[in-house]
Every structure is written in C-alpha cells, then in structure tokens.
C-alpha cells in the first residue's frame, strides 16, 4: 500500500461515512482517486465499513468467552462458532488449545444462545464467560498506530462536520423497528451505501432513508464501524490482555489504556481479571514494550495475563481468511 492508502484509511477510521469529496480535499488528491483506492482496499479485504445496531437497543448482552478444547478440535470448533450470527469475534489462542470469542445473548431467548449450547459440545473441555460491565468508547481516538498520522489541520478539516462518537447507551425511547431490518442488512454489507442504494434495498423514498439513518445515528441506536485487517498494515502481534485491577482504579485504568494507539478495545468485565484490553502491535517486541511501559507502570494494575492470537477467524461479524476480511 502507498502512503495515500494509509491516509484514506485514517480518514475512514475517524468517519467511516465521510464523503469521498471531503477526504479528497483533506488529502489533496482527486475524488476519483479516493473512490478508486477505497474500492480496491475493500475488495482486497483490507478494510470494511459497516453501520451496526447498538446491541443494547436490540436488548442483547455481550459476553467474552474463553473455551478450552483439545488442540486437534480447535480449528473445527472455531469454524462452527464463526458461522453463528450471535458470535462476532472468534480467535484461536494459547498454542491452539483455546478459543476466545465475543458472543451475544438475548435474555428472552437464553436457551438458544451459544452459552447454552457449549456445555453439550464434546470438543469443549471447559469454558468461562465474562459479561461486559462497561466499555470504554466514545473518544475520537481509535487504533491509529501509523508511521505518518494525519496532521491537526487535516483532522480539523475532516471533522468540520464532526462524526458522532458511538454511544454506549442509546437515548431513552430509541428503538429498532421491524421495518429497519432491510436498512440494517444493506448497511451491514456496505456501511457507506448512499441514499439511492438504501432506498432500492428498502423500498422507501430517499428522503425517508436519509431521515431514518440520521435518527438512528444521532440517538446512538446505530453506529458506524470501520474495521481493518491489521496484518495488511504490517501488524502481526494481536493479543488479549486480561488485567486484574484494584476496583477503585478500574475506571481510570480503563480510560488510560483505551487512549493508547495500540489499543483496539477496552472493557471492564466480570471475573477475577476485571479489565479486558485487546491490542494490536507490529511484533512481539512491540507487544512486550506495550506491556512493560504502558501497562506495567499503572499503579492500579495487580496482574496481567497476555494471550497472543494465533489465528483469527472472525472480526466484528466479518469472516477472516488468510489475514484478510472477507466482504460478501
């Protein structure tokens, strides 16, 4: 990838639905260049933009699940997990004997959840589920570990019409209606879909599509998600960090780590390890530096378990093949 590709990606991390014209103005290139390179990045599985429903608006509970299984069964079991719609992330870790995934459960249909089915699966030796208590989101800083980040002037121009930070809790009274299904289905395929394509998919007038999408985003009922295939950017060390933090320091520690450029996700969770941090580094040396200089110096951290990802099969609901996002 060339430098302009990295710059386009940085713009989309800030605002996944930023118009090509605005990105072109920020970067000093033509609108056609931005559009062409974006389509190539998407087709090559380098990135994917989606508009997703807020899980709380759907009444879902998020779980982080660690599954211990026989090494010879891990790949097949992980594939089964990745095929489920209620599972959004699937990784094989710990020498190939553990699967870590993110699963969602509907309290009104608990018996159909993956958590209900796992104990009946013969390949599973044991598993532990951790409920997400609090996710540290809402800042404008995301995973930005690029050698040449956008300058302040470029960021200011990009955010003239400032994108909304994802809301942890949708506004009171915000609901997802049955009639929104076609709209979300199209936006899950392509989060940059315009009013014409969305109107065609839903059968609604363009004015209704635009108004409803604006309402969903402004109330936190939906959010724009830009996901990257980190290996395509030269980042090969992805890891889960399970931290045990003094309860009085938990919130501050989570906030501090969520602002680090290597961090992709931070959440307070149930269990003995009460803070989960996922990080993406260039290599194991960089991971070591992150753990020792950015985690180890925090006074509230009492214990850290570092679990490297060996193989990722699914990321934010998108299948991963050979280190690339499979956009269907």
Verbal overview:
The chain has 328 residues and is an alpha+beta fold. It has a domain of 77 residues: Lrp/AsnC effector binding domain/regulation of amino acid metabolism (RAM) domain (Alpha-Beta Plaits, 2-Layer Sandwich), CATH 3.30.70.920. It is 33% helix and 29% strand. The strands form 2 sheets. It has an 8-stranded antiparallel beta barrel. It has a two-stranded antiparallel ribbon with strand order 1-6. α2 crosses α3 and α2 runs antiparallel to α6. The longest helix has 13 residues. It starts with a helix and ends with a strand.
Question: In short, what is this structure?
Answer:
The protein has eleven helices and twelve strands. With 328 residues, the chain is an alpha+beta fold. It has a domain at 236-312: Alpha-Beta Plaits (2-Layer Sandwich).
Task: Please supply descriptive tags for the structure shown above.
single chain; 328 residues; alpha+beta; Alpha-Beta Plaits; two-stranded antiparallel sheet
**What's the number of extended β-strand segments?**
12
Order of helices and strands: HHHEEHEEHEHHHHEEHEEHEEE
Q: For the report, how would you describe the main beta sheet?
A: 8 strands, antiparallel, barrel
> What is the CATH fold-level name of the domain at 236-312?
Alpha-Beta Plaits
Instruction: Summarize the amount of helix as a percent range.
Output: 25-40%
State the fourth-level CATH superfamily of the domain at 236-312. Lrp/AsnC effector binding domain/regulation of amino acid metabolism (RAM) domain
Q: Please give the alpha-carbon distance between the first and last residues.
A: 22 Å
Widest β-sheet, arrangement of strands: 2-4-3-10-7-9-8-5
Give the overall average pLDDT: 88
Helix/strand class: alpha+beta
Globular, elongated, flat, extended or rod-shaped: what is the shape?
A: globular
The poorly predicted ranges are: none
- What's the tally of helices? 11
Architecture per CATH nomenclature, i.e. the level-2 architecture of the domain at 236-312: 2-Layer Sandwich
Quaternary structure type: single chain
């Amino acid at each position: 990838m060339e430098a302009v590709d990295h710059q386009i990606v940085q713009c989309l991390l800030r605002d996944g639905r930023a118009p090509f014209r605005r990105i072109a103005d920020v970067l000093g290139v033509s609108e056609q260049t931005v559009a062409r390179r974006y389509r190539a990045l998407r087709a090559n599985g380098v990135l994917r933009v989606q508009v997703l429903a807020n899980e709380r608006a759907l009444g879902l509970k998020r779980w982080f699940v660690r599954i211990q299984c026989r090494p010879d069964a891990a790949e097949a079991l992980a594939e089964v997990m990745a095929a489920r719609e209620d599972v959004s992330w699937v990784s094989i870790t710990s020498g190939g004997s553990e699967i870590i995934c993110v699963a969602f459960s509907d309290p009104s249909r608990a018996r159909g959840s993956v958590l209900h089915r796992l104990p009946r699966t013969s390949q599973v030796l044991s598993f532990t589920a951790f409920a997400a208590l609090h996710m540290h989101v809402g800042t404008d800083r995301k995973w930005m570990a690029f050698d040449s980040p956008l300058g302040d002037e470029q960021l200011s121009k990009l955010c003239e019409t400032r994108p909304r930070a994802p809301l942890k809790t949708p506004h009171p009274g915000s609901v997802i209606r049955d009639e929104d299904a076609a709209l979300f289905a199209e936006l899950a395929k392509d989060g940059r879909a315009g009013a014409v394509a969305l109107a065609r998919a839903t059968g609604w007038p363009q004015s209704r599509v635009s108004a409803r999408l604006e309402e969903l985003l402004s109330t936190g009922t939906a959010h724009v998600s830009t996901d990257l295939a980190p290996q395509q950017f030269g980042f090969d060390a992805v890891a889960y960090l399970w931290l045990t933090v003094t309860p009085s320091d938990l919130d501050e520690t989570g906030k501090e780590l969520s602002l680090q450029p290597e961090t992709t996700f931070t959440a307070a969770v149930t269990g003995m390890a009460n803070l989960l941090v996922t990080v993406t580094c260039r290599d194991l040396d960089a991971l070591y530096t992150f753990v020792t200089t950015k985690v180890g110096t925090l006074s509230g951290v009492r214990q850290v378990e570092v679990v490297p990802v060996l193989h990722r099969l699914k990321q934010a609901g998108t299948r991963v093949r050979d280190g690339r996002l499979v956009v269907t």
